[in-house]
Amino acid sequence: MFGTVRLTLALLPAEVFHEYFIDVARDYRERVKETTKAAGWHHEILGGGELPYYGDQFKHKYMTTWVQDLD
User: Fold this and answer.
1) Contact, 22 vs 35, CB < 8 A?
2) Is 2 a member of any domain?
3) For residue 25, with 0-12 CB atoms within 10 Å meaning exposed, 13-18 middle and 19 or more buried, which class applies?
4) Given this model, what pLDDT does residue 22 score?
């Protein structure tokens, strides 16, 4: 097994990034939640209510990532 690497990947669906490139519909967040759930991800919106919006968190069995704009 010399020189061998076992690499595990978790693919985040491209629909997650649509809001940054195209105009999205009102039900966009629900569609993202359904699409990511089907791919094995758990979607959570960070912030809201009294706290400002901090982006979206996506958890997978292999990793956790956050997506938000840079404003």
Assistant:
1) no
2) no
3) exposed
4) 82
Going from the C-alpha of 69 to that of each of 25, 26, 40, 55, the distances in angstroms are 18, 18, 23, 7
Structural domain includes residue 28 = yes
Q: Tell me which of 1-5, 9-13, 54-58, 64-68 is least confident.
A: 1-5
Number of structural domains (the chain) is: 1
Distance CA 59, CA 36 (A): 10
pTM: 0.73
pLDDT band (50, 70, 90) for residue 42: very high
